[in-house]
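Try this one yourself first.
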């Protein structure tokens, strides 16, 4: 059996080489995003590298099972030059793709705030423009591909090879076959046990919360592991925290609004600005801003400094803003198994009250499934790149430049019958942040590539308002302006799990000078639908997981889900929960970097937070969300 021992030793060396490559990938991930992890305690960084090994081992073993089994077969089956080459190619191709995933995620993480999961494949399938962007990605992030090629070359050069040649004679004898089979099974059981983890439950993404805080989950994990663990996880289960009647009493998503004035109907325009983080607003952040027009408009609007997105992706933002559906599952609603569910929505409810409804996005028609979702949401008229019909203003990647498409939007609004609802989704402040040549020197470069494109998108928004300010319908229109999600950040607060969702949300009604000021209530994207329906006085009965900012009866809160960890914000508190137990509570007002975990504290100050109430409210939201999603009960009818 010395040949079997030799194969085991050879396999061990090759797997250790893969493990070393994963270590280098994690090191690059950490150094490349050092600003994000700057607030991490040294022990948490060390824990990420130490305990992260088990997640690396799990991914390596599962993705290399054929590779492992070939090593464990009788030596004469796998020896020889041809078989050795097969093993070497498997190592380089599969191991190389795993390395590439880890390296690319070092950059993609800056946009999503999490390790990539299997939903990336659904997203790619919904976005034809991904093909156009691949050359630009390679151009912009050439250094990542160069590092990958160097690592791949290094792995190939030091790949352990077998110097031993065995006889072509097959294993003979019943005893020899049984002994080899037993040893092979024992080796497989041992390796699968390593991959599974030593706990009662197999290793999961959420297991990482046992070792590090929520902010450092991406560092302890690896991309192949999160992709693997999120496959076939789209289906929800309903937790049994409470009876459904009890959950309804704690928090109810059923809303009613009444027409209390009996007057004319307001037009409604919702504008979603791509990647406009709160950090980019001088008015909201108190630092240098890149959206001077929007900042000036805030002085005439009702503004919420504690306003948050419900997700980190555009594909998840649209259901939150238009249908009050937060992103509380692994897969975006648009690409999930529940995307055919009947839903209540803002355009749908207004459409029932004889509103003309439309949606504008200058991207390629079909991108991210926006056209399909808006149709589901009750939008009658979709305007995209096709309808614009002039590719002279195509940015070469995503769609029509914001300035031209905003002016097109203004022209179309002027032709619509009143009352109308319309939603505009901008795109120029999206990577690769291109702006027209005629404006190259108009805007400040800023410290990040996105800053110049934010300034251009803000200028485009200003051009839109300039073109409609004298229209007869302007004063009779409620404008809601927000961002789909945040972008890259420089400030440590906007890099943690609270600030990473901080976006502007403002309500502007030029015909109502009283609708202005600053309200410190916590609000979120899913509040927009109930707030608008409340403000415009419709008779509506609908499902919304948010609350109206114009109602004192409902408490303001915000809810998010990332890396299989829920977070719930209420008053000054943020609760992190893994679906089974609370993992942390922070005061994000007095402790903006989330250093002090009140779950680990005793005595003074701890009694100021009621963990039971926060957790009960979050659990009720989770339970009702999953129940209604699974049972197609997202409408109040």
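Now uncover the answer:
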């Amino acid at each position: 059996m010395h040949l079997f021992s030799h194969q085991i030793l050879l396999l061990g060396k090759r797997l250790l080489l893969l493990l070393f490559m994963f270590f280098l990938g994690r090191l690059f991930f950490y150094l490349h995003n050092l600003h994000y992890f700057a607030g991490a305690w040294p022990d948490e960084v060390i824990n990420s590298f130490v305990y992260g090994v088990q997640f690396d081992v799990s991914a390596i073993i599962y993705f290399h099972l054929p590779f492992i089994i070939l090593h464990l077969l009788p030596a004469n089956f796998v020896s020889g030059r041809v078989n050795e080459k097969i093993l070497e190619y498997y190592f380089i191709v599969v191991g190389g793709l795993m390395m590439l995933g880890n390296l690319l995620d070092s950059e993609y993480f800056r946009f999503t705030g999490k390790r990539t999961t299997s939903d990336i494949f659904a997203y790619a399938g919904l976005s034809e423009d991904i093909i156009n962007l691949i050359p630009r990605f390679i151009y912009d992030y050439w250094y990542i591909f160069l590092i990958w090629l160097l690592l791949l070359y290094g792995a190939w050069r030091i790949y352990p090879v077998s110097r031993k040649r065995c006889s072509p004679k097959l294993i003979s004898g019943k005893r020899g076959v049984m002994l080899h089979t037993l040893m092979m099974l024992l080796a497989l059981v041992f390796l699968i046990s390593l991959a599974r983890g030593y706990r009662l439950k197999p290793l999961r993404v959420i297991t990482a919360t046992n070792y590090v805080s929520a902010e450092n989950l991406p560092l302890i994990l690896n991309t192949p592991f999160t992709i693997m663990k999120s496959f076939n996880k789209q289906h929800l289960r309903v937790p049994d925290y409470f009876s459904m009647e009890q959950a309804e009493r704690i928090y109810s998503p059923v809303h009613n609004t009444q027409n209390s004035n009996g007057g004319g109907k307001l037009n409604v325009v919702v504008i979603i600005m791509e990647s406009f983080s709160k950090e980019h607003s001088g008015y909201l952040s108190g630092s240098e801003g890149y959206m001077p027009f929007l900042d000036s408009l805030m002085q005439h609007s009702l503004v919420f400094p504690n306003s948050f997105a419900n997700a980190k992706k555009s594909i998840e933002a649209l259901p939150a803003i238009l249908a009050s559906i937060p992103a509380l599952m692994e897969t975006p609603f648009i690409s999930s198994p529940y995307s055919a569910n009947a839903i209540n929505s803002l355009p749908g409810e207004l459409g029932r009250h004889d509103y003309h409804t439309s949606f504008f996005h200058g991207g390629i028609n079909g991108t991210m499934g926006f056209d399909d979702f808006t149709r589901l949401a009750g939008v009658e008229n979709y305007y995209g790149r096709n309808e614009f019909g002039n590719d002279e203003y195509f940015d070469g990647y995503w769609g029509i430049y914001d300035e031209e498409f905003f002016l097109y939007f203004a022209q179309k609004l002027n032709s619509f019958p009143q009352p109308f609802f319309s939603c505009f989704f901008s795109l120029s402040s999206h990577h690769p942040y291109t702006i027209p040549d005629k404006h190259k020197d108009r805007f400040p470069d800023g410290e990040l590539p996105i800053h110049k494109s934010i300034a251009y998108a803000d200028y485009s928004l200003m051009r839109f308002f300039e073109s409609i300010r004298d229209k007869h319908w302007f004063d009779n229109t409620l404008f809601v302006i927000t961002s789909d999600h945040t972008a890259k950040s420089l400030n440590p607060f906007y890099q943690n799990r609270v600030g990473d969702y901080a976006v502007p949300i403002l309500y502007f009604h030029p015909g109502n000078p009283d609708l202005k000021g600053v309200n410190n209530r916590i609000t979120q994207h899913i509040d927009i639908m109930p707030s608008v329906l409340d403000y415009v006085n419709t008779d509506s009965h609908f499902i919304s997981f948010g609350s109206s900012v114009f109602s004192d009866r409902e408490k303001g809160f915000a809810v998010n889900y990332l890396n299989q960890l829920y977070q719930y914000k209420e008053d000054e508190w943020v609760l992190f929960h893994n679906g089974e137990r609370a993992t942390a509570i922070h005061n994000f007002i007095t402790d903006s970097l989330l250093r002090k975990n009140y779950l680990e504290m005793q005595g003074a100050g701890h009694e100021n937070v009621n963990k039971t109430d926060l957790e009960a409210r979050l659990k009720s939201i989770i339970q009702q969300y999953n129940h209604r999603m699974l049972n197609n009960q997202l409408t109040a009818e």
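Discussion: Confidence is low (pLDDT under 50) at residues 166-170. The chain has two domains: 2-230, 245-630.
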